[in-house]
Specification:
The chain is of the alpha+beta class and 326 residues long. Helix content is 43%, strand content 26%. The structure holds (3R)-3-hydroxy-3-methyl-5-(phosphonooxy)pentanoic acid. The site of (3R)-3-hydroxy-3-methyl-5-(phosphonooxy)pentanoic acid (PMV) has 16 residues, from helix 4 and helix 5.
Amino acid sequence: MLEVSSPAKAILFGEHAVVYGKPALAISLDRRMTVKAFPAGLPKVDGGPLSMRKHRYVRWAYNNLWDGPTLAFKTRSSIPSASGLGSSAALSCSIAAILNYLKGEFTEEGTARSGFQIEYNVQGKASPTDTSCSTHGKGILVTYEPREELLWSIEKGETTWHVHHIAPPDLELVVGYTRKPSITPIQVEKVKSFYDRSGFAKETIEEIGDLVNDGLKALKEGDVVKLGGLMDRNHSLLTILGVTSKEIDRLRDAAGPYSYGTKLTGAGGGGSILALTDRPHKVSEAIKKRGGVPYIVRPSKEGTTLNILDSETVDVILQQVQGQKG
Ligand code: PMV
């Protein structure tokens, strides 16, 4: 009766440094997670009962954010999971939008907040970068102090993140998935132990912070040569922090000759690289030859979108939920 779809994301600049108070720049990608919701006798996902292991995100959302009539969900995704491309964020935002809509509370900011709440509670620790980027589409800048074009601010404990709108140009990009999962907490811990004992690590984080601001300027100017150079530089700094791997380096070596710039995206260790290029098919072939999985992508213009397939059923549920509230 209701179909919601949310895009993947890639961090363009600033991963890891964002944990230490620096800004991060993320863009959405035109691969999507689509979720359909319909009334059912039992809560189900893709035909099976809501499972603790398989459906952690949907299950948490359903148990904690929903009090209305029983719903079942059908998911369809073109975002590889554990690849650093935000598949869990896209799922969280899609479920958040469905439940908020059926409660009569649908807004973009509300989706970003509920999507973050779902990811945070399931993962134990998360920043709102992925969920805000997936909700908003286009691009976002996350900072610890508000700037121009503020979309929303999200607080958790001592931390407040400010999320800003960015309009990326129509970049040609190739994601190269290493086939090795990226485990964010392990990489974050690795950087933390280096940071705690090394002035050099602190300087490296500072330098990444400065580079994000240069990257933002180059993005706004649509200067792909400058952007590519900054991506390479950001990658070198991430290498100093110890979060690259032989799988990542192999794909960068493959994509490099046909790209303006390449870098790992997300936490690293595995996951994916991002290549900025005007020869996406050449880059794809090279990535495939070196054992990676290529995806030709562009920034997504649309964030979370909602499509009502059966307005009568939606109205019945809306009335039931309102009745329960009243
Ligand atoms: O791999 P991802 O998409 O979960 O990105 C992690 C980004 C980090 O900066 C390494 C961690 C964080 O919470 O921001």
